[in-house]
Amino acid sequence: MKLYGYWRSSTSYRLRIALELKGLAYEQDPVNLLESAQRADSFTARNPFAGVPMLEADGRDRAQSMAIIAWLDERYPDAPLLPADIEKRFTARELAYAIATELHAPLNLPVLKYLKNELGHSQDEIDTWYRHWLAKTLVPVERRLAQLGTGDFLFDAPGLFETVLIPQLYNARRFDYDLSASPHMVRIEQACLALPAFQRAHPDSQPDAP
Ligand SMILES: N[C@@H](CCC(=O)N[C@@H](CS)C(=O)NCC(=O)O)C(=O)O
Which CATH number fits domain 2-79: 2.170.130.20, 3.40.30.10, 3.40.50.720, 3.30.200.100? Predict the structure, then answer.
């Protein structure tokens, strides 16, 4: 398998965590987003979404991180990312999809560039935008974790939820989002970052990290 990603892209980080948790071997071919390599004809011919991650696997170029992760879990059923219990699976998806669908979209690089270049917003205004949309989803996620009384992980071991949460917390810290009122997420983050799978997937461990 070959992963086309970018070291600091949260969706690439998300997919690396999934690959690592499932113990799957993969090569990397970095795509430099700062040089707009994702929009090169040679890349969009393979991935019309013009973004990362893309996973070359079983003779196909696969886009969209959540679809890729679901495919990996079905294709390689060992080390499942979702619990066996249907209600627990629901909870993991409820929280993971909230982050993947509602939080990621307004914070994507083209959105931030549009705010800056087309609408002329300052970096301070963009940072405020970023923190606003982080809170809109991270506050209810934290409340749900408190209701559930979670420990080091959502359930017994890290899975889909942690795969999606950890990259978003990495971004939240980059934008100085205040996590002091989010003890459940912070505890889960600390427990995950202590594990080799998450350390190998971390942006700083990637071949294209500066
Ligand atoms: N829904 C997509 C989103 C992918 C995405 O937003 N990728 C970003 C990096 S995190 C990207 O490639 N941005 C560059 C661009 O859109 O020009 C997924 O989950 O894979």
Answer: 3.40.30.10
Q: Give the whole-angstrom CA distance, residue 133 versus residue 74.
A: 32
Residue of 112, 115, 185, 97 lying closest to 148 (CA atoms)? 185
Centre of ligand 1 to C-alpha 30, Å, is 14
CA-nearest residue for atom 12, ligand 1, is 51
Write down the mean pLDDT value for the chain: 96
Task: Delimit the domains of the chain by residue range.
Answer: 2-79, 86-197
User: 57 forms bridges with which residues in the sheet?
Assistant: 60
CB 104 within 8 A of CB 10: yes
pLDDT tens, residue by residue, 35-58: 999 999 999 999 999 999 999 999
Q: Which atom of ligand 1 is nearest to the CA of 6?
A: 9
As a 3-state breakdown, the chain gives helix, strand, coil percent values, each rounded to 5, of 60, 5, 35
